[in-house]
Design a protein that fits this description.
Blueprint lengths: L14 H11 L8 H14 L3 E5 L2 H10 L8 E5 L4 H9 L3 E5 L10 H10 L3 E7 L8 H11 L2 E5 L7 E2 L2 E2 L6 E5 L12 E5 L2 H10 L30 H32 L6 E2 L3 E2 L2 E2 L4 E5 L8 H10 L16 H7 L7 H9 E5 L6 H22 L1
Parallel strand pairs: 2-3, 2-4, 4-5, 5-8
Antiparallel strand pairs: 1-9, 6-7, 6-12, 8-9, 10-13, 11-12, 13-14
The structure holds pyridoxal-5'-phosphate.
């Protein structure tokens, strides 16, 4: 087999997008403009929610979601024990404590039973941030019920779950609010950027105001220029017109990209199922259907196959991989040092952190790449196992 070059992710940027950006840069409206407004309207329609609010990143959105609820010292926010660090950092920004909850081993999603158990150890859980792991929605019926019982609201980290569904409803409308990411490696990009979605009118108003200093009147609402008041503390977490223009252009292609992702996911998964040593994540479970961010394979718990050896071999074959995520979050240095977590407290999250490898299924992946990746994964797993024995 000739060596191929397969990046893990590749932003799809075309001439239409570049032309649209140049048009923005030829004008003078760089923030607070029509592109941001149109992007919010189109996104809300797509997600099937009443409100979509642009923000500067998913991290900013997660922070705002807690901040506008006045979450602070003395409060806890339940988060999955394996996720992007932003999910837990958002609680730390507010001076609150993350309450790590172990995940289901077959999906990486927060385990609703573990959540029910965890909230019993802390009386002060005010929010539950779930992450639709690699795009597969959590068991929201069970999560929402557990959160309601604890008196907490549910925020969805939808960073890599755009268009994923649960019981026919899109991610971002499955809890009180949802936060999306448009970082370059995600399903679509605005370079940096994010979106907050909600059906709650009052919450949407608060998030709008407090992503922009807490102004009582936005730029277009001021009858006299420069005259406004500030009735709450707020950040500058706005998206600009160039980013929103990039997002609008990306949205026009998203349907096609999503079809390709779904096809690539199924084809690659089917080709890998015969490898006994691997657990391969499914694209659906119960009422949940994935947005197919990437395909996770997980090596045996007993360590008989070395992950480093497999990654090295795939890399040598030109196959870009990633890891979601490189450690259970409570064992990352910052959290470990601050709260004293020990190995063995989050067995499922720890296994995924140590033994999973993410393979690409994005729209840049073609059929020949799938055959090539499947053949090399088989070979790498076989060699990593025999070199260990
Ligand atoms: C990428 C990602 C984030 C962070 O998104 P930014 O837009 O870069 O802030 C948060 N959570 C998850 C699950 C992610 O994958």
């Amino acid at each position: 087999m000739d060596t191929r070059k397969i990046p893990f992710a590749r932003p799809e940027l075309d001439d239409d997008l570049r032309a649209a950006v140049l048009k923005v840069l030829s004008g003078t409206t760089l923030v607070h403009g029509p592109a941001t407004h149109e992007f919010e309207t189109k996104f809300a329609e797509r997600a099937g929610v009443a409100h979509a609010i642009t923000v500067s990143s998913c991290t900013a959105g997660l922070h705002l979601g807690l901040f506008v609820h006045d979450i602070g010292p003395g409060d806890s926010v339940a988060v999955p024990a394996i996720t992007h660090v932003a999910t837990a950092h958002a609680a730390e920004f507010c001076g609150a404590k993350p309450l790590f909850v172990d995940v289901e081993p077959d999906t990486g999603n927060m385990d609703a039973a573990a959540l029910t158990e965890a909230v019993q150890t802390r009386p002060n859980v005010r929010a539950v941030t779930v992450v639709h792991f690699l795009g597969l929605p959590c068991d929201m019926a069970a999560i929402n019920a557990a959160a309601a019982k604890a008196g907490a609201f549910v925020m969805e980290d939808c960073a890599i779950a755009i268009d994923a569904t649960y019981a026919g409803r899109k991610a971002g409308g499955l809890g009180l609010l949802g936060c999306f990411s448009f970082y370059p490696t995600k399903h679509m990009t605005t370079i940096e950027g994010g979106m907050v979605t909600t059906d709650d009118d009052g919450l949407a108003m608060k998030i709008r105001a407090r992503r922009a200093f807490g102004y009582d009147k936005m730029l277009g609402e001021r009858s006299r220029p420069g005259i406004y008041d500030v009735n709450a503390l707020g950040y500058n977490y706005r998206m600009n017109e160039v980013e929103a223009t990039v997002g609008l252009s990306q949205l026009r292609h998203l349907d096609g990209w999503q079809v390709k992702r779904a096809q690539n996911y199924v084809a690659l998964r089917n080709a890998l199922l015969e490898i006994d040593e691997l657990a391969v994540f499914a694209p659906a479970k119960g009422q949940a259907k994935s947005s197919h961010f990437c395909l996770n394979i997980v090596l045996p718990k007993d360590g008989t196959v070395s992950r480093d050896a497999v990654i090295d071999q795939l890399q040598a074959a030109g196959i870009g991989t990633s890891v979601h995520y490189p450690k259970a979050l409570p064992l990352m240095k910052y959290y470990q040092a601050k709260y004293g977590y020990r190995v063995g407290q989050f067995p499922n999250a720890e296994w995924l952190g140590e033994q999973s490898i993410s393979l690409p299924v994005g729209p840049h992946i073609v059929e020949e790449d799938i055959r090539y990746m499947a053949a090399h994964v088989k070979q790498a797993v076989y060699q990593a196992r025999s070199s260990r024995a």
